[in-house]
Design goal:
By secondary structure, the protein is α/β, with parallel strands linked by helices. It contains 13 helices and 7 strands.
Amino acid sequence: MSSGGHRPVMLEEVAETLAPAEHGRYVDATLGGGSMAEMILERSSPDGTLLGLDRDQTAVDGAGQRLARFGPRFRPVRASFDRLGDIMAECGWGDGVDGVLADLGLSSLQLDDPARGFSFMREGPLDMRMDQGQALSAATLIAGNDEQGLARLLRVYGEERAGKRIARRIIERRDSGRMETTGDLRQAVLEAGLRGRPGHDPATRTFQALRIAANEELAQLEAFLDEGWQLLAPAGRMVVISYHSLEDRLVKRAFRRWAADCMCPPEQPVCNCGWTAKVRLLGRRKRKPTETEVKANPRARSAGLRAVVRLED
């Protein structure tokens, strides 16, 4: 199942874990190319319904056209998933849904469009905005930071150990008028002496850092996960696919907190927090794509799936 050049990651694993069923209400919090939403609507036939969110208007429009055949069963909304609770309430779904999916990766449609500036493989502007209506972009981050500020961004959001060297090269190129495109940014990384690991371009962490910072991805994910279990009806399931350690740590920490039977400090002899487990973990470790999928779609390589099911009240 694909849309143009879009290839969904771990589609069968999502189908198996989310287990869409007739009469169910579902949310695809990151519509992208619409492949996951299509699978959910097909498997919840004939009357399952789906609310689809994306902050990229291009994705919302494309999914709306692709899934038009499902009629009122599909409702696309342009919004970030940190607003999901409010949007569900507006739709009359405030009592929870049977499943929530959040695939945190970039859509292939975004990566493969040079004009969006997400990829170091294609020459394009330094954009990287998921919502093209927002002011902040990779270019404005580079223009508005000094060497120390850029180095911090690369360290915090890209876990880039060579952040200082890369930031110095970026600033040198910026100040000499040679920092206009994705190719210029990748060249700055190469000039800093990075060579990358086998199978990984040396610019990967730099592009990741600027993209995360420009789109405030971690802050939005934290807001989504703050009380995310409350989005689920009893026995409802949440599936999250992450692509790097910063995302995965937030998801892992939230899921384990929701599944804990107590929030008291370990040294406290008697529990008085009043907390009880809200969910059950569906697997102790994250699930990885199969070798067959990675060979067919190398972009799936870094994906990891975690899931929970809400306990009965």
